[in-house]
Specification:
about 475 residues; alpha/beta; 5-stranded mixed barrel; globular; binds flavin-adenine dinucleotide; binds nicotinamide-adenine-dinucleotide
Length: about 475
């Protein structure tokens, strides 16, 4: 077995691990990164990026179909068809390019990448079994755990055959005629909507009484309307009992009625669980926070010089949170005074319409005992939204009543994901309503709704 020594060893090359390694390399810290699959992790290879590629392809296909059906814009096209194998190849091309790009960035930063599965021997020693060649023992001063998460499997609907997780749903060999989605959260709705646009009949079974239960109802109503309009059938407050190819998915309603939903494919998207077992992490006996590894504000675990970031450390399980934590850890190891204490972590759900939540909602502000004002500006009154034929939705701001400090932004509408940068920046910079209201926003843009929401909270919106 080959032996190597390094200052920092990172297990996992997802957005948490690779960002930590690149930053550490930039800071001159000798760094080794071990990745068992592909660089980029869940996010680049089976998560954020491929899902958004598929969502975009589905959106384009649906648009072409609408135009073939007679477009109010005067565009006339022949009835479109879909080559799903080519769609998947296009998506894979993006993944391949980005994963290769991460490899190049790691090389540029001087990080040594070892391809293989890491097994922890102790807090300073890790054995790596590469796919080919000799095993390597890596000794390190600092060990960073960034092993991410995996889909939750339901015992009555195990993955296999027609029952797939998001990973299978992102690389279909063919399109199902009837898809049943279990879970109306992020993945279930993003991919359920995409499959509907690609032509599948889609039914969604959700245990809670509402879709996207993590978001407030005012925000999710436009998504609910869009689902209903597109013909996605929702079964809320229901539990799944099993699947058989003849009848489909067996469902029990809240009133204990039982029925079957015919399906030739089933997407189970009921959450993700941290990857904490199978690679020797148990031997470290780290303090846990429920299922997750407990960390402090510098991402230190309970063991000296063992750090953890990303999905392994809990909610929100989002790529940008993992990246931000990774950067903090590298800088702390380099001796900088850094903490992971963001004012806000943006959350975006890429349904159609998109949903953005940054900071506190009016309900969360109330629950925290803050006396706040909130105001919304509808896209129906925004000129750019009209030119995009996308007038559904609104931007909402939440600010303290006493000093107008902005504590939250929410939006729902087409393309609002891109507003998340402005929302988060305003909160991190401690903006007040007057700062946003007094900033000139380009015309005509959706961003004018941001300024108008702030103006409305101050009682003098112009365009409504
Ligand atoms: P991961 O990205 O999971 O990376 C962990 C890496 O560690 C993996 O590559 C794994 O192979 C490797 N690994 C694990 N154990 C070992 C070992 N023992 N040895 C070697 N390597 C190991 N988030 C967003 O912010 N926006 C989105 O739009 C979004 N969309 C998503 C869509 C889908 C379908 C899914 C599934 C997730 C999505 N997410 C999204 C969540 C996002 O992908 C995760 O939050 C993010 O990838 C977490 O990063 P991470 O670095 O913690 O872990
Ligand atoms: P989720 O937590 O978003 O949604 C899971 C849904 O399944 C919930 O609505 C829950 O009530 C429901 N559910 C749980 N058990 C059920 C059961 N037995 N039967 C029916 N419904 C059940 O989880 P997800 O959609 O699997 O996504 C996992 C994580 O990945 C997300 O929490 C998020 O952190 C991340 N993600 C983020 C994005 C994004 O940022 N746009 C996109 C996809 C995934």
């Amino acid at each position: 077995m080959k032996d190597i020594s390094t200052k920092l060893l990172v297990i996992g090359g997802g957005p948490g691990g690779y960002v930590a390694a690149i930053r550490a390399g930039q800071l001159g810290i000798p760094t080794v990164l071990v990745e068992g699959e592909r660089l980029g992790g869940t996010c680049l290879t089976i998560g954020c990026i491929p899902s958004k590629a598929l969502i975009h392809a589905a959106h384009e296909f649906e648009r072409a179909q609408h135009q073939a059906g007679g477009s109010p814009l005067g565009i006339r096209v022949q009835s479109p068809s879909l080559d799903i194998a080519q769609t998947v190849r296009w998506k894979d091309g993006i993944v391949h390019r980005l994963s290769g790009g991460v490899g190049a960035l790691l090389r540029k930063a001087g990080v040594q990448v070892i391809q293989g599965w890491a097994h922890i021997e102790d807090g300073k020693t890790v054995r790596v079994e590469p796919a080919e060649g000799e095993a390597v023992r890596v000794r390190c001063e600092h060990l960073l755990l960034a092993t991410g998460s995996a889909p939750v499997e339901l015992p009555m609907l195990p993955f296999g055959g027609p029952v797939v997780s998001s990973t299978g749903a992102l690389s279909p060999e063919s399109l199902p005629r009837r898809l049943v989605v279990v879970g109306a959260g992020y993945i279930g709705l993003e991919l359920g909507m995409a499959y509907r646009k690609l032509g599948a009949e889609v039914a969604v079974v959700e245990a809670a009484q509402r879709i996207l239960p993590g978001y407030d109802e005012e925000l999710t109503q436009p998504v609910l309307d869009a689902l209903e309009k597109s013909g996605v059938v929702l079964h809320l407050g229901c539990s799944v009992q099993g699947y058989d190819a003849q009848h489909g998915v067996h469902v029990r309603s809240a009133r204990a009625d039982e029925f079957a939903l015919p399906a030739d494919r089933v997407l189970v998207a009921v959450g993700r669980k941290p990857c904490t077992t199978g690679f020797g992490m148990e031997s470290l006996q780290l303090d846990m926070a429920g299922r997750f590894v407990a960390v402090d504000a510098q991402c230190r675990t309970s063991m000296r010089n063992v750090w953890a970031i990303g999905d392994l450390t809990g909610d929100p399980m989002l790529a940008h949170r993992a990246m931000a934590q990774g950067e903090v850890v590298a800088e702390v190891i380099a001796g900088k005074a850094r903490r992971f204490e963001p004012m806000a972590i943006p959350a975006v759900c890429f349904t159609d319409p998109e949903v953005v939540v940054v900071g506190r909602t009016p309900g969360e502000a109330r629950a925290a005992g803050l006396d706040c004002i909130d105001a919304a500006f509808p896209f129906a009154a925004n000129g750019r939204a009209m030119t995009l034929a996308a007038t559904k939705g609104f931007v909402r701001v939440v600010a303290r009543r006493d000093n107008h400090l902005i504590v939250g932004w929410q939006a729902v509408g087409q393309g609002v994901a891109e507003l998340s940068a402005a929302f988060t920046l305003s909160i991190e910079m401690g903006a007040r309503l007057e700062d946003v209201a007094g900033t000139i926003h380009a015309h005509p843009t959706l961003g004018e709704a941001v300024q108008e929401a702030a103006l409305r909270a101050l009682g003098h919106a112009i365009h409504i």
